[in-house]
Amino acid sequence: MINRKLLWLFMLPGILLYTGLFVYPALSGLFYSFTNWDGVSPSYDFVGIANYKDSFDSITFRKAFVNNIKFMVVVVVLQTVISLVLALVLAKNSRTHVVFRALYFFPAILSSVSVGLIWSFIYDPSIGLLNMSLQSAGLDSLMGSWTGDAKIALYAIAFVQIWAHAGQMMIIFIAGLHAIPGELMEAARIDGASRLQIFGKITWPLLAPSAAIVISYTTIQSFKAFDLIFVMTDGGPNYATEILTTYIYHLAFSNYSFGLASAGSMIFLVLLGILTFFQFRALRQEGARG
Amino acid sequence: MKTQRTRLALLLVMVLALTGVLSACGGGSKQADDGKVTISFLHWRGEDTQTFQKIIDAFEQKNPNIVVDMQTLTSDQYQTTAQAKLTDGSVGDVFASFPGAQFAALAKAGLFTDLTGESFLKNYNANLIEAGSQDGKQWAVPYQLVYNMPIYNKALFEKYGLTPPKDWEGFLKVCQTLKDNGIIPIAFAGGDIGPGQFMNTMVMNNEPSEDIFTKVEAGQAKLTDEFWVKTLTQFKELNDKGFFQPNSLGTKDPAAGALFIQGKAAMLASGSYQLSQNVKQNPELQQGLLAPITVSADQAKYEGVHTSTFMLAVNSRSKHPEEAKKFVEFLSQPDIAAQYANETGQNVTLKDIKYDSKELNIAQEWADKKTVFQPRYTIVNAENQKAVTNSIQAVLGGATPEQAAQDAQAIIDQQIGR
């Protein structure tokens, strides 16, 4: 019988660290969201819910929110589909498949900042690899200003996000595929089921728990995206890629509006919480059906 | 029981070790046992650390009781974390600050020691250190001098018989001649610094005033007024006529620089800080500075734009303000400032400095000309600054100047209302 007091004592450093590094900053963020603190001054005033009101009224906040949703939907849908297709193609444990898996996984081990810098050069309209390749292939009409065109900049960055993380999600799907008992597939094949039928009736339902992980992880990851956008466009051109995290960052550290940025962070936290809650619930139901 | 005690002891050691690690993260100014005082010098010019270290060594030799501990952050990090470090006085007895929003915030927080009346201020060009003063007091001393004007390729201009134009018509003609000869008239980093840099010279004569954006932020003038709509219209004209490289909004600073350095573009919308960097990459390059004059020659009040930055200050929470001041005084000696300038390729705000490179002298030629402090940096609210530069991006992206000005003004109105 382990002594309960001793158990608490051993947990104490962890609890202290967690409180100091996560609970305290979160609570102080909540506190400052009701003040007009600029992040530097020793003094500040309490402004009630003014920061929350200002956030919802803010033209930039609304633009950032809409961009966040667009970015998230594109990344979640495409990344899930692409990583699933990659997993289905590369699930075998042959040497070639393992090599390709490693290649697709590779971007996941690069830092987002490096990825952003590499792709900034690729996307550069004058000296970038993408336009140069299109030109060499005689596809001049497709050449564009990838991160400079307000209509496509957000999607150009979404593509990079997917490029960087699809391989990682593929590994989760492959793990799920390997967990499906071979006999089921074998039985289906003997019964004359087509590939599509096997996928629809066996593979997909049994992959539901993996899909749940991939979708929820991708949702949170894309909603919280920051590094790529910060490095590649810093929210531009003309707010076309401004999302909530870059908006909050600019408020706090360029504009010295720490109170307002804290309110933005709190709204962001609640939005993410709601999103995650509903998604987990939906996915749990999906998992239960599967 | 014994095991329990051993576990408890282990736990205590862990907690103590952790506390030790955390407390070691502190530091900064302190009085050592040997009577020496250590002051901390915090700045963002990582590329200048070698030169600064030489200067610090010389300072320490002359002041054997003072040790200067230099710490640098990247300029992005400096914007985000410097203020927190400075607030408790643990680092940055001497620190640098940016003009504009950061200076305003640090001044409001009372982090600057008043340097008014200090004898070393006489070494500076009084006009160039105004960015560090507020309410009649000199809170910080801008050390670096930058001319935020397009750099032009003299050889290319000569080849096509061009000279820096004196009015808007002349500027358009120069651009057209260059374009007709297959040269990109202006390399423009529309994806990052381009709009912020180029707007300075574009607006300086459309509203020849030192405080137009102060008025905009106070609600006494609007971006929808003629001066800004005209500026945006001229941006649009340059873009529509193909005087920027194609897809300029997707171009970042290094790519725009490459176009200029390789001689594919005749002008680079940046500033004098880029001169020595350019010549390092292409030693054959013959460079000059010019400003687009957006009005007729007789209406032009200003010839160019300057910014004084890297503002040296003494932290008001420093435990060793006298020693810190001594270090700023040392940096303010003309021979030391000249060493800094010549080794780092940065012009300085001090008087009578002898520059030993062609590039530094190119900028120095502008010291006697009529220049105005960078208009963009007179906008102290960063959201407003962004709204202004974004309206340029909006126009280059296809919006009408009126609409872009209106959208930006809407954001500024919200900021005023806060």
Automatic annotation (TrEMBL), chain B:
Which parts of the chain are coiled coil? none
Q: Which InterPro entries match?
A: Bact_solute-bd_prot1, SBP
> What are the record keywords, sorted?
Signal, Transport
- Which Pfam families would you find in this protein's record? SBP_bac_1
Where are its TM segments located? none
SUPFAM superfamilies for the chain: Periplasmic binding protein-like II
- Signal sequence extent: 1-24
Q: Which Gene3D superfamilies match?
A: Periplasmic binding protein-like II (3.40.190.10)
- CDD domains (UniProt xref): PBP2_TMBP_like
Q: Which family does it belong to?
A: Belongs to the bacterial solute-binding protein 1 family.
PANTHER family attached to this UniProt entry: ARABINOSE-BINDING PROTEIN-RELATED, OSMOPROTECTIVE COMPOUNDS-BINDING PROTEIN GGTB
Q: What is this protein's name? A: ABC transporter substrate-binding protein
Question: Which species does the entry assign this protein to?
Answer: Paenibacillus bovis
